Amino acid sequence: MPEITSTSQIQNSAAAKAQTDLASNFDDFLTLLTTQLTNQDPLNPTDTTEFTNQLVNFSSVEQAIATNQNLEALVQLEQISQQNMMGATMINYLGKSIGTNLNVAALNNGDAAWNIDLGSSAAAVKYDVYNQNGDIVFSETQNSAAAGEQQYSWNGTTNSGTQAGDGAYYLVVTAETEGGSSIDVDYSFKGTATSIETINGEAVLKVGDVPIGLSYITSVTEPTTTDPSA
């Protein structure tokens, strides 16, 4: 389930810090005022006009800080509301087949496959597989590739010869024509949403080990079932 931010976190804001600083400064001001009034010359009393003006200024600043606190609280409550609505939407997607145009696939027991679509026939193609840290773990080149939809498979063997662990991996395909012109490459991924998690403060659907943000979902359909009697 996505994490829900507590309203108590709203207190940790710039406005709250400003109010604390103002209270400290106001205490210092009152100390100075009391000291000066206590030690003033009875025959030549201190003009309190300046102190009165400063008291008015303190009051104005305090009201401005209170207004900022209220605005910050409203913004954060709106963010919490949006996150809750997003979580509720994602709950409806659990068990559904989720489609996305991300270049992602899950490596599971030495098997990962990406669906790609080349805009035209290629004379040179390079496949780079990245882990979730953005590091290239495997690279491969081919002398040619046909245009259209196709699948690229990877057995999890890295460039160093070790076996990569299960999880989400990203494929970047660089394709060129015989003349060296770049070819457009589209990606697609589909799988059944199994859970909801929060990653870096954002609620995402998990399709196996693959995280998919709500904004990246391109289709939601009922999963295809196979009749065992067929």
From TrEMBL:
Q: Which GO terms describe its biological process?
A: bacterial-type flagellum organization
Q: Which UniProt keywords apply?
A: Bacterial flagellum biogenesis
State the Pfam families in the record: FlgD, FlgD_ig
Gene3D superfamilies referenced in this protein's UniProt entry, alphabetically = 2.30.30.910, 2.60.40.4070
Identify the stretch annotated as signal peptide in this record. Answer: none
Give every FlgD/Vpr Ig-like domain span: 110-178
Q: Which domain of life is it from?
A: Bacteria
What family does the database annotate? Belongs to the FlgD family.
Q: What does this protein do?
A: Required for flagellar hook formation. May act as a scaffolding protein.
User: What protein name applies here?
Assistant: Basal-body rod modification protein FlgD
Q: Which organism is it from?
A: Sneathiella litorea
Show the taxonomic lineage: Bacteria, Pseudomonadati, Pseudomonadota, Alphaproteobacteria, Sneathiellales
